[in-house]
Specification:
3-stranded antiparallel sheet, 38% helix, globular
Length: 452
Amino acid sequence: MKVKIHKFEQNGMYILLDINSGAVHVIDKMIYDMMDVFDGTNDKETIERFSGSYDAADLAEAVGELHKLIDMQQLFAPDIDIPPTFKEEGLVKSLCLMVAHDCNLRCKYCFAGTGDFGHDRGLMTNEVGEAAVEYIISHSGSRKHCEIDFFGGEPLMNMPVVKHVVSYVRKREKETGKVFKLTLTTNGILLSDDNIKYLNDNNISLVLSLDGRKSVHDNMRPNAGGQGSYDASLKNFKKIVEARNGNDYYLRGTFTASNPDFTEDVLDMADQGFDILSVEPVVLKDSPYGFTEKDLPQLSAEYDKLTKAYLKRREEGKGFFFFHFNMDLSNGPCVAKRLSGCGAGHEYYAVAANGDLYPCHQFVGREKYLMGTIFNGIEKKEMPRYFRESHVLNKEKCTDCWARFFCSGGCHANADLFHDDIRQPYELGCELQKKRLECALVVQATMALEKM
């Protein structure tokens, strides 16, 4: 029998999550205890079990309230079925263009081999960029809104092609009626005044890579000569964020075994004037910078620390947006999104500099996942279907996990890295995701109670 609810205590709050509906309830200690027994069909047994600890009238009233939630399908809600659309061929919604298989930094934890993805360094051409735009237009069907991410390596190392693709996109938007959201991820070193003006003038969203404190960042993200990159990145990030009035960006960091006290890095980024933040745990196999199961207690405690610091900053009027604490408790993602997440390998592809197609940017260079080319299309026809069907209801370890509809089965690339199988989730990532989700639920419940 699949688990239907998840309950936990944190920050002095008792939280009850109904897994299928996504409904979140702040409850008291009595109901928290009752939910160890109550299943919607055993009212008498539940009342008798706890009558020695709580008043019988209070227990009966609580059972009645729980039944109201059941009637509203906010408790023990029906199981989610696989939507019929999952039997159809997916429409392409997003492409990641690896415009530069090269980088001006030498980050110690880089999944892309410091930019070359395990192969030769190189830059995308205008021809490949145009073909990518045509590919998403021809494979997105009736979908109006599409996305293109400029990625690397460091995409600003190939700014001429970025500019050419942007111009081509705007031309094709007018001709097709499609609307493109454009995003670029950068380490900031090449954010000259001209590049800043261009990115802002052309409404390109930004992901800015900074790892927090100067000592942490410089240790992990040196340049090709071995010197730290923090000062140059920070200066340019402040300049471009100010130039776009603090909009349309977020600052993203990575924490490793060298800085498990990542709360200090989040707060340092906030103190530097950035208020849209994210930090992610590094995912490395057999590396001194990676995490193992023995690190879980410390990382879990650190997420608790970050939660308290985040809420304290809000109380002091110094709040910021933290990506992993952002959840909509009243109107969560659609069923398809809850099942399959990012859509890698069937709705989202990465385009290597030479035009090769991969399921996502993290698969680039893993040759068994080379799916085809931007010129000839998908050649391994079975692969998109396999990715599309690799959702939480088809992953054995996900089917009975309380977080399955929030994490959408985890990252396929991480699963492949650790298990050579995209349907066998990366366990450490699962545990960290569940802890982040609990913290996010506490944050959102606290904010909701403040509005009452």
